[in-house]
Amino acid sequence: MPIAQIFKKKFQTCMTHFPAISPMPSMTKFRLTRRQIFIAGLLSGFAMTACSSPSSDDNSVSLETARAELEAGHVTLIDIREPAEQATGVAKGAKLLPMSQLGSRLGEIPTATDKPVFLICNTQNRSSKILKALRERGYPHVRFVRGGMSEWSRRGWPVTKP
C-alpha cells in the first residue's frame, strides 16, 4: 500500500476521533494534499503517543542502570521468567522467582524500601504488568528493567546457569 494511502487512512481515522476538525458532512468528495496527509500523520502519531501508557522513571530502569546497580549490590534483581526460560541463562546475582509462583511466594519480595527491587523478564512485557500489581499491593520501590533478558543476552552481557 503506498504511503499516501496509509496516511490518508490514518487521517480519516483521526477525523472520526476529532470531529471539530473533520470535514463538513455535506462534502461528498474529500481529496487530500500531500501536506494535509503529512500533518494528519503527525497528528495521529501525537494522538497515539498521548494515549499510550507512559514509561516514566518511577516505573522502569535501563539495562545499563540495572546491571551497574546489581553489580554494585545496591538492588535486588528478580528474574520472573519461567524455569525453562531461566535455563538459558540468568544475570549473576539475580533472585529467581517465576511469575507463575509469585502468588505463593510474594513474601520473598523485599518490602524494605531502602533497597530497590528490579523486575526482569524476557522483554519487559510481563515485568511491567507485575510491577503494576505489586504497586497496588504496597511495593513502591519496585521497577521493571526495560529491554529484559533478551536484550541483556543480545548485548553479550554475562549470564550464568541457574
TrEMBL record:
User: Gene3D superfamilies of this UniProt entry?
Assistant: Rhodanese-like domain
Entry's InterPro entries?
A: GlpE_sulfurtransferase, Rhodanese-like_dom, Rhodanese-like_dom_sf
Kindly give the Pfam families that the UniProt entry links to this protein: Rhodanese (PF00581)
Q: Which residues form the Rhodanese domain?
A: 71-161
User: What PANTHER family does the database record attribute to this sequence?
Assistant: FAD-DEPENDENT OXIDOREDUCTASE (PTHR43031), PYRIDINE NUCLEOTIDE-DISULPHIDE OXIDOREDUCTASE (PTHR43031:SF1)
Protein known as: Thiosulfate sulfurtransferase GlpE
Which source organism does the UniProt entry give? Rhodoferax lithotrophicus
